[in-house]
Amino acid sequence: MSPSGASGAALDAADPLARYRDRFVGAPGVGAYLDGNSLGRPLTASVERIGAFLTDEWGGRLIRGWDEGWLDLPLSIGDELGRVALGAAPGQVAIGDSTTVLLYKLVRAALDARPGRTEIVIDRDNFPTDRYVVEGIAADRGLTIRWVETKPDEGVTPELLELGPDTALILFSSVAYRSGWIADVPAVTALAHAAGALAVWDLSHSTGVVPTQLDAWGVDLATGCGYKYLNGGPGAPAFLYVRRELQGALRQPIQGWLGSAAPFEMGQGYTAAAGIRGMLSGTPPIVGMLAMRDMIALIDEVGLDAVRAKSVALTEYAIGLCDELLPEARLASPRDSVRRGGHITIDHPRFAELMPLLWERGVIPDFRRPDGIRLGLSPLSTSFAEVELAIRTIRELL
Amino acid sequence: MSPSGASGAALDAADPLARYRDRFVGAPGVGAYLDGNSLGRPLTASVERIGAFLTDEWGGRLIRGWDEGWLDLPLSIGDELGRVALGAAPGQVAIGDSTTVLLYKLVRAALDARPGRTEIVIDRDNFPTDRYVVEGIAADRGLTIRWVETKPDEGVTPELLELGPDTALILFSSVAYRSGWIADVPAVTALAHAAGALAVWDLSHSTGVVPTQLDAWGVDLATGCGYKYLNGGPGAPAFLYVRRELQGALRQPIQGWLGSAAPFEMGQGYTAAAGIRGMLSGTPPIVGMLAMRDMIALIDEVGLDAVRAKSVALTEYAIGLCDELLPEARLASPRDSVRRGGHITIDHPRFAELMPLLWERGVIPDFRRPDGIRLGLSPLSTSFAEVELAIRTIRELL
Q: A66-119: per-residue pLDDT in tens?
């Protein structure tokens, strides 16, 4: 029983979204999967769809498939993602590459759009790949990185920013990968714009679980992961957003045939395709994006606000249980649900040694060094009973 | 009947490799699929394997899959590919990204390894993405491109090269995408080395069909496509080769967490992983590489020399039939089988208008502007009867 007196099972019985859990493939022996923010579970529909795709489309249509729809998928799925989860009007989102490669393209493009500015602003607690991409580009170009030091268990906040006439761009995560802190994206973006800089956002840990309004918030550039809350499968392609007004002026550095204005002309001299297509480089990974489309459709069916409501209830319940059952652990995530994303992290010096024991018992959270257990609660595939089982198992093992 | 008097059916009856055709998924209504060099057909084993992967591994093992083998796949499949098809000892090949992104990484890395040199040498007939990548990088860095003009229906040859002390790198295709010309890779590479330059090869149209010895030939860097003769499926990841001696000195520009020395430490400051893993950037596209592994295993079972022997027989048969039945068409590929890869192109002013009619009849070659029909004969999935049907259908339609 939780502090409120409700068991996980009782909360599940009252949960209007509980029935969607049956849409996902089951995992034998797994009692609690709490890592949906690292790798979302497959939808049964996706397994069927990919199987049919392999046989009927790849196998049956063969090369004709490109003309018959595959070539449009990066943009059509991008548009759907924009509408359902990003607050982005059509023509601004595309699927492709990995988050890392897309970050590289966006940071390079942003720098070229702010010539003469020599500083990139990013936080020390940003996800490693974001930091590594920026470090590589800064070293190449002799640029300065201004490191923002965030408060413990938080993320970037407007008062931490010192931007100036040298700032070319900022790069932050909309939801911090460890603490789950939800950044005030419009306020931080407005500060960047006031300094004449561009705002690049990594949406990996928010997309599909935290309502987002990129157009309304004035975001310039963004990218995010396809296999977390978008359930695209291990190594599924990422997505990127380029604000429409910027598309004509921005140039991305990896010029490939699928981003050219006339790929099948095979002509001399690269001319970028107009619009968001010009951000593509090589041949789009079709199989990898099919499962994302199914999850986007499911989020659309449920509604992102309802997903978010369950997400808040799941993290609230988890925090209450941790307070009650794991008083020796430290919550490393915001208590204020307005600033808390879809996952929470709890720290304890013995958590590293607990991880293999938890896996043995079919309880699968994530682990983030040095001593954090991260509970990633994907609202459509995670039950309250799983949260209860996981925290009670941690209690027993401690 | 062909000039030699043999029908396609008779040649199939005598073909020791004919039985492997049953391993591939059938395409209802397709009488002749001659575009295996653009998109190879799926193996039935791959459809089954991917279905099982989605349910049992992604769905069943969930995040544990990374620890249980997924993380090794880019390098273990790379090693297999190296052994079976590239003549590369282990530790030099990795799977990931797209050919375009890998070309970008390799060209950038090669330039950094030849500081002060200002010239990139590439041919006008190279595949568009190769040229576009180089054009973008050259524009960024103020470098010169020396364009090699190849002879009609050929590809790069040693006597066309003018290399000098400014040449940083050469980038050519081992098999030309239109003519099918097989370059003399060791001779051209030796010229690059004699000038102090690095040799980068695009192996997209040779890998899996033309025997290749990257180690023995002294190749420095190479990349190639995973969905042509490696049958990885639409948009499957590409592969790259970095010669072992160069790995310590080369730095690739897209620094991501999966190419770092300790991805799960999530620490400050990027340090590249030792060896070929340091060429990776983002999370590897796992589903996309599974089908490649099956095709590599099949090539291993058959033996690449046997695959090549059938490939030569198929193109020889196609040329003979074209000579006999399509005298008004022009062969735009080498007649000498030593210099001819797995596909041939025939040109005729009316071929563009024929393409939709061919598709209607279930005959699916490729088309390359301005007026070339390209016959891509993937030896393990293409029969002699398909070749005969295609050329007789073109005859009828002309």
A: 999 999 999 999 999 999 999 999 999 999 999 999 999 999 999 999 999 999
- Judged by a CB distance cut-off of 8 A, whether residue B69 touches chain A is no
Helices (H) then strands (E): counts for chain A? 13, 13
Please say if the pLDDT value at position A2 is more than 90.
Answer: no
Asked if omega into B370 is within 30° of 0 (cis), the reply is: yes
Radius of gyration of chain A (CA): 21
Q: What is the pTM of this model?
A: 0.98
* CA-to-CA separations, A72 to A30, A52, A210, B128, B236, in angstroms, rounded: 38, 19, 27, 20, 17
Task: For residue A121, report the phi and psi dihedrals to the nearest 5 degrees.
Answer: -110, 125
Per-residue pLDDT tens digits for B203-254: 999 999 999 999 999 999 999 999 999 999 999 999 999 999 999 999 999 9
CA-nearest residue of chain B to A41? B59
Contacts of A62 in chain B (CB under 8 A): 27, 30, 33, 35, 39, 41, 364
Q: Chain A contact for B64, CB < 8 A? A: yes
Q: Is B202 a catalytic residue?
A: yes
Backbone angles phi, psi at A136, to 5 degrees: -65, -45
The pLDDT of B92-111, averaged and rounded, is 98
| CA distance, residue B3 to nearest chain A CA (Å) | 30
Distance from CA of B271 to the nearest CA of A (A): 9
Tell me, rounded to whole angstroms, the distance of Cα B78 from its chain centroid. Answer: 14
Taking contacts as CB-CB distances below 8 angstroms, the residues of chain A near B359 are 64
Strand A330-331, strand A343-347: pairing: antiparallel
In the numeric block, which tokens belong to residue A176? 């911090």
d(CA A367, CA A345): 9
Q: In whole angstroms, what is the distance from residue B331 CA to residue B347 CA?
A: 6
Q: Specify the pLDDT at position A63.
A: 96
Catalytic residue numbers of A?
A: 127, 202, 227-228, 374
Expressed in angstroms, the distance from the first to the final Cα of chain A is 19
Contact B63 A25 (CB under 8 A): no
Q: Which domains does chain A have, with CATH numbers?
A: 8-43+303-397 (3.90.1150.10), 69-300 (3.40.640.10)
**The pLDDT of residue B213:** 98
Q: Does B140 touch chain A (CB under 8 A)?
A: yes
Sign for the pseudo-dihedral over CA of A99, A103, A104, A105: positive
CB of A65 less than 8 A from some CB of B: yes
| Contact call for residues A342 and A38 (beta carbons, < 8 A) | no
Q: Distance between CA atoms of A42 and A63, rounded to whole angstroms? A: 27
Record: contact A364-B64, CB cut-off 8 A:
yes
A338 vs A100: CA distance, rounded Å: 28
Q: How far is A3 from chain B (nearest CA, A)?
A: 30
**Whole-complex ipTM:** 0.97
Residue B3 has pLDDT above 70, yes or no: no
Interface residue of B67, B103, B106, B287 to substitute, partner A, most A CBs within 10 Å: B287
Which among B64, B66, B97 is the nearest to A101, CB-wise?
A: B97
B227 close to A (CB below 8 A): yes
Residues 100-129 of B with CB under 8 A from A: 100-101, 104, 124, 127-129
Q: For residue A100, what are the CA distances in angstroms to A132, A367, B30, B121, B257?
A: 9, 21, 40, 29, 8
Q: Is B255 within 8 Å of A132 when comparing Cβ atoms?
A: yes
DSSP assignment of B168-236, as one string? EEEEEESB-TTT-BBP-HHHHHHHHHHTT-EEEEE-TTTTTTS---HHHHT--EEEE-SSSTT---TT-
- Can you say whether the dihedral through the CA atoms of B37, B38, B43, B49 is positive or negative? positive
Q: Does B270 touch chain A (CB under 8 A)?
A: yes
Q: Are A226 and A232 in contact (CB under 8 A)?
A: yes
